[in-house]
Amino acid sequence: MEGMHRDIAARIDAVEAALGERLHLSGPLKAKLAGARGRLPRAALAQARELLAARAMLDNPATARHLDAGRIRDTCAMLERHLAAVPEGKYRRRARSAMIGGAALRVLAVLAAFLAFVAWRGLA
Hints:
The chain is mainly alpha-helical. The protein is built from seven helices and no strands.
């Protein structure tokens, strides 16, 4: 029984690592699942939330006995299929574009504040 729980925990850890790698997300599993909204199907994410409960159950030996190992394995397999379907580098490019856009927005905000200051002081 203990070996099966270690296998399930390792599988959940592998899915968590795949989420980080394929979708370029960081943080704990809960944050990665929140960041995966819009990148994975809603039904898959709803089912993936079971992994959070399963990990919590695995931490306590009394509740680990009541864990549905087959369902957790199926959830992990489903998530692995969805993550394998994500094109390589798709979200890395999106993250880079968002970073560049954010920097441009900050530059424009500083420029607008400077122009407002100049107009307020009557220097222009």
